[in-house]
Specification:
There is one protein chain. Helix 1 crosses helix 4 (about 60-85). The longest helix is centred in the first third of the chain and has 26 residues, at about 60-85. Strand 8 and strand 9 (about 195) form a beta hairpin. This protein has a five-stranded mixed beta sheet, with helices on one face. It has a three-stranded antiparallel beta sheet with strand order 13-7-14. The protein has about 300 residues and is α+β, with helices and mostly antiparallel strands. About 40% of the residues lie in helices and about 25% in strands. The protein has helices spanning about 5-15, 20-25, 30-45, 60-85, 100-115, 170-175, 225-230, 245-250, 280-300; strands at about 50, 55, 90-95, 120-125, 140-145, 155-160, 160-165, 185-195, 195, 200-205, 210-215, 215-220, 235-240, 255, 260, 265-270.
Length: about 300
């Protein structure tokens, strides 16, 4: 059993297919299958339950694969630390990001990041749901909201104000809200995470809280779709200032109720544990902090924040 065999095992567990794992590693299915057999023979257990149609982890595999991943992560960290001493950062970075922020803001930044560090291979996973680091093929995740799981480790990137906004076309047709209660008379573009729809919007002004129960004809579990609807003049959106930054700067949408602040959030870079933090992840953290601060400064300089 070699490190290459273990890497093949992890790919098989990730893809739930020996053929798909082999394709991702540019090797034959026979080579991958032989590696699985070698590891299982040395361990004396079956890691996978095979049927004619599918492959899944056995109970023993469910226990072994996470520990195997941890061990290889430790070896990779040691390798990265050695490489960093000679200013070389390399390896695969499997990153998850929210749909809107990931596609429209972070993706262009990551193109710049990989230009600076060309030996880093990037794998992007776009999803609004929380990541299960032991089941999803992800090393690190960009996530909104404070870190609440004590089993995870994270870096806070920045505080993120939210903004209420709409297109000029929508406002010309339906009027400009003056106070939060006015939103109840408008079409709110609502975001749903799991079973919870964010249909009660909270605002603060001079220490006073205002709550509005919204009505809507458009609800989605994709945050990027909320932004697209807003740009298209379909209603009013309450979003992260980062998500809406380019549309606000380009005047595609305008901020409304600027004196009433929606509940803010935070942006974090999250890892499954401190032991999985590589030099590449630390560089990404510093890069994202710098980029987010510059973007917020630009919004402030234009009077948007």
């Amino acid at each position: 059993m070699t490190l290459d065999d273990l890497n093949i095992i992890l790919k098989v567990a990730e893809f739930k297919s020996i053929t798909a794992a082999a394709d991702s590693l540019n090797m034959s299915s026979a080579t991958a299958s032989a590696a699985v057999k070698r590891v299982e023979k040395e361990l004396g257990i079956e890691l996978f339950i095979r049927t004619t149609r599918r492959l899944r982890l056995s109970p023993a595999g469910e226990r072994y694969i996470p520990r195997c991943q941890e061990g290889l992560n430790t070896l990779n960290i040691a390798k990265q630390e050695m490489l960093s001493e000679i200013a070389i950062v390399s390896g695969e970075l499997r990153l998850s990001a929210p749909s809107d922020l990931g596609r429209n803001i972070i993706l262009p930044w990551l193109n710049e990041f990989t230009d600076i560090y060309p030996k880093i291979t990037l794998k992007m996973h776009i999803a609004d749901k929380n990541i299960d680091f032991y089941r999803d093929p992800v090393d690190v995740a960009v996530r909104y909201g404070p870190l609440s799981d004590e089993n995870l480790y994270g870096f806070k990137i920045c505080n993120v104000p939210r903004v209420t906004c709409a297109s000029s076309g929508y406002l010309a047709k339906h009027g400009m809200p003056v106070i939060p209660d006015d939103i109840a008379q408008h079409n709110a573009l609502l975001y749903q995470l799991y079973e919870k729809v964010d249909d009660e919007w909270c605002f603060t002004r001079d220490g006073q809280t205002f709550k509005v129960k919204t009505t809507s004809n458009k609800i989605t579990n994709d945050a990027d779709l909320v932004r697209r609807w807003c740009v298209a003049g379909q209603g009013i959106a309450k979003k992260s200032c980062l998500d809406m930054s380019q549309d606000l700067l380009n005047h595609t949408v305008v901020r409304i109720l600027p004196d009433y602040e929606p509940t803010p959030t935070e942006l974090w870079l999250v890892c499954p544990s401190r032991q999985t933090i590589t030099p590449a992840i630390r560089l990404l953290r510093d890069f994202l902090i710098h980029k987010c601060q510059n973007l917020k400064n630009e919004l402030k300089s234009k009077g948007i924040l």
